[in-house]
Predict the 3D structure of the following.
Amino acid sequence: MPVLGFNVTKVEMEKLTSNIPPGQIEVKLSPKIEELRLGELRTPTGKINGIEVLFNFEIDYNPKIAHASVKGAVLYMPPQKEKLDEILSAWEDEKKVDPMLLVEVVNFLTTELTPMLMIVAKEMRLPYHVPIPRAEIRQGVQ
């Protein structure tokens, strides 16, 4: 697994109105990579170098009823260790993110942060940022 660990440093969710309008509410998830740098993980057998990915995972509602943001860091290990320097150089030179790193980190963050953000949204009486499956009665089926 390319993601070795993560650390959340800030969680913020703000309700911007007390009246949630009826009808459809659009939710936009915006995971952003703010910085890539050399990171390390200490293990009993020594330290492992990887890429520390600083992120900001934002959620915006339309109409503007709330805004959420989670900041932190993910330690990513490329499948080929020799790509570590190549990924960091591309970031330093052009602010270019390796597509494999981006996909792995965004999928990991979505999986790890969704449960926490759903609990906070529930406590604040906000719509969830992901659709929840719902049972419905089908017409003509008995």
User: Anything to note?
Assistant: The chain has a mean pLDDT of 90.
